[in-house]
User: What shape does this take?
Amino acid sequence: MSATVPNRVDVVVVGAGPVGCALSLLLGARQRSVLLVERHAGPYPLPRAVHFDDETARILQACGLGDELPALSEPATTYEWRNGDGVPLLRFEMPAQGQQGWPSANMFNQPDLESRLFDRVETTEGLSHLWGHTAVDAGQDGDGAWVEIEPAGGGARRRVSARYVVGCDGANSTVRDLLGVTFDDRGFYYDWLVVDVALHEPRVFDPPNLQVCDPRRPTTVVSGGPGRRRWEFMCLPGETLETLDEETAAWAFLEPWDVRPDNATMIRHAGYRFRARWATKWHEGPIFLAGDAAHQTPPFAGQGMCAGLRDAANLAWKLDYAMDHPGAAALLETYDTERIPQAAAVIEVATELGKVICIPDPEQARARDEQMAPLVPPGGTTPAPPMPGISGGILADSASAGELFIQATVRAGSDEGRLDDVVGAGWHLVTNGPPVELDGELASWFESIGGRSVAIGTTVEDVEGRYGRWFDDHGVAAVVERPDFAIYGTATTDRDVTELVTGLRDQLEALQGSSVAS
Ligand SMILES: Cc1cc2nc3c(=O)[nH]c(=O)nc-3n(C[C@H](O)[C@H](O)[C@H](O)COP(=O)(O)OP(=O)(O)OC[C@H]3O[C@@H](n4cnc5c(N)ncnc54)[C@H](O)[C@@H]3O)c2cc1C
Assistant: This one.
């Protein structure tokens, strides 16, 4: 962090939750100057998220946390949903090694992750921060945007200008209110009591992660990250969170699980209401929304923070490109067109899962059980709900465009590790076999946007054979991967590869030439 806070930066990020920190770090990695403003003096201390997926792990890797993730998290394997009689309704098995070079599901303690993110922000060149300061106003001018900031305890305001402002300021976002943006709301919400504990002695939970779909008390029992457990209890009709959210009530709920003050420490209990909604637009001119400021989801797919980090990954490379290519406002429009439908689809998945458990009525629960009875054969598993890719925006018209590509272990000389670490993050032209020579001008252009060519089996060794298998399964010879890991497009011949990269250049250049518009 620089000692003084500048009056003008490339980007002001409001809110240093996981999304604001990640966006700042991804911009910092691109040598952009960022001011991160947070109203609290330090990371938010209370646990919230407990799960992140392998795509999120890869984004955190890009934020520089790759070495720290294994100690911060533990892989999740089985996630089972049982009815009130203990009969499985759904059973998800998550592979220990996912498609992004990380376990496909990871359990963690959000404050520990946020603390590492804060450390990283404080030590990254080009990033400034103002902890204990609140953004109270924001607007746009001919030069970009500005934010008015005041010390959280009151005091003199300061104005900082930027080319872009991003509100990562959570569900009650000030920036969103200032933009006057409204929500698409699925109208699906319930109150739950969340209780986090540290057990004094290690204990094996089988299954390790469980949803108890018992109408007498829908309950979540999952890992809370290394050394911690999370219970959540649904507030039933006729109850209020005020009466549930008491320490004695929380211990009473834990008693049937053999969790008591003499064998566990309660880390916290808190009532919350989940929502299923997303903002109708995620930017106005140079002012953007990301994370919970833009969308909120029921927790049952463990995707709220993951979706926010996807926003950060999508927005970071686009803001960076737009700063190098004035007039690329149409590119920034694709933040909305790509991310809103994708986030909404994830919220729909979480809502459908929520409808399985949030049933306090015994008759409705019986009907659900009958309907779902055939879904898990004895000893079998339920296919994971589909996680949608991107279906519009910066994509080629080719197979697999918009899906996530993979990350696996590669070796280059004596350097072995995950591909992003070995070759660097950014645009990748990944070919299966010998490298494809782009012509000089196209190759220079690709390099100018941070593109790297990776020839599997030639410039890098495919240590686990995962890339080879992926190419065989998909019947293609090359992939252009975007900096947010989505596949821009695929190609089958050398000529197709040249066309693919030319198409990318044409598409990006066609999006230039417009001024920043709302
Ligand atoms: C019980 C529970 C369980 C959850 N489980 C999961 C899970 O398993 N997996 C998952 O992915 N997600 C989960 N989530 C959701 C996840 O916690 C959120 O999606 C995530 O914290 C959102 O991150 P964010 O950075 O967008 O917002 P926040 O974490 O809310 O951070 C916003 C920050 O902005 C600051 N701020 C606000 N206004 C201002 C202002 N005007 N000026 C300066 N600073 C400001 C706030 O102080 C805060 O630090 C869960 C949430 C809850 C409540």
In short: The chain has a mean pLDDT of 94. The longest helix spans residues 329-357.
